[in-house]
Amino acid sequence: MNKIKLIAIGLACLMTAGVASAAQLSGGSNDYTRVDCDLLANDIKIILTSGVAGGVTCDEANNLVGLSVCHTAGLTTERSATYDHGDTMSDGTQCDDGGSGDGCSETVTGSGFPSASTANGTVKTRYPGKSCDATNAEQEATDLVAEDA
């Protein structure tokens, strides 16, 4: 019976190898190590100021790391957001400006989540219509990496 348990645990470990991992970040110093993400060359500290929440995700299978943050006292009222051609908008559709280069605009609510991944290296604000907390920031980082994979 113990051999069966060991085999099952071993298979579970093999199946999860290369699976994405994610972490929630809170204000202050947050350690993110090579144990969390083998893609890192070194252990890092992610320092967030008071009122800032964040999330980081590591997708070793696709060689991607994503980071998303927000401020708990940030703007949440209805406002306009602009997107570049090809960007994913808050409703999940892609911005298609017909090649004009003008981008797209839409009305958004909720917190803005400045986010970036190692795939594109550019910080772009995402508007998922959610409040700012570490859980939602982690989800935005995970979603961004999934879109970039």
TrEMBL record:
Span of the secretion signal?
A: 1-22
For bias type Polar residues, the affected ranges are 106-123
What keywords would UniProt list here?
Signal
- Provide the residue span(s) of the region labelled Disordered: 82-149
Q: What is this protein called?
A: CVNH domain-containing protein
Originating species: Thiohalophilus thiocyanatoxydans
